[in-house]
Amino acid sequence: MLTHLDAQGRANMVDVTEKAVTAREATAEACVRMLPATLQLIQDGGHPKGDVFAVARIAGIQAAKKTHELIPLCHPLLLTSVKVELQAEGGDTVRIRATCRLAGQTGVEMEALTAASVAALTIYDMCKAVDRGMTIEGVRLLEKQGGKSGHYRLEEQA
């Protein structure tokens, strides 16, 4: 049984030694809501700090690679791919989707969630001087594949 508790009930890192190496993938998302003028500034390329989407994309990728340093008990993973996509929606929202892949003994859900979260935080950081009312919402796992627990896909609520 996989657990983060040892026989004495203390937190520890799960031993994945006996788990099979399989292809694993996870996709997570986050949304940043902002004033329409802020999003327009980003899209027009007129932000004084530069290309907000490019910086957020790099920040998300770097964060995925360092998830084990940020989240206690996460395994250090050799990711084979990290993709961070940013899309403007509805005139006031940036949707971030992060997908992480590897061939390994444990999943990449935390890496995808971390990538999406840090990309969102980076947008906030770069734009806070012009829009302190931004919100980061809907950080969630959308899909995961591979491993013993199989395939998971978030079912949208009606």
UniProtKB/TrEMBL annotation:
Enzyme Commission number(s):
4.6.1.17
Molybdopterin cofactor biosynthesis C (MoaC) domain location is 13-147
The UniProt similarity line reads: Belongs to the MoaC family.
Q: Which reaction does it catalyse?
A: (8S)-3',8-cyclo-7,8-dihydroguanosine 5'-triphosphate = cyclic pyranopterin phosphate + diphosphate
Q: What pathway or pathways are given for this protein in its record?
A: Cofactor biosynthesis; molybdopterin biosynthesis
CDD domains in the record, alphabetically?
A: MoaC_PE (cd01420)
Recorded GO terms, molecular function? cyclic pyranopterin monophosphate synthase activity
Q: Which domain of life is it from?
A: Bacteria
Q: Give the UniProt keywords, A-Z.
A: Lyase, Molybdenum cofactor biosynthesis
Does Lyase appear among the keywords? yes
Quaternary arrangement and interactors, per the entry? Homohexamer; trimer of dimers.
Q: Which Gene3D superfamilies match?
A: Molybdopterin cofactor biosynthesis C (MoaC) domain
Which residues of this protein are catalytic? D125
Q: What is this protein called?
A: Cyclic pyranopterin monophosphate synthase
HAMAP family per record: MoaC_B
One Gene Ontology BP term is: Mo-molybdopterin cofactor biosynthetic process
Binding site residues for substrate: L73, C74, H75, M110, E111
Q: What does this protein do?
A: Catalyzes the conversion of (8S)-3',8-cyclo-7,8-dihydroguanosine 5'-triphosphate to cyclic pyranopterin monophosphate (cPMP).
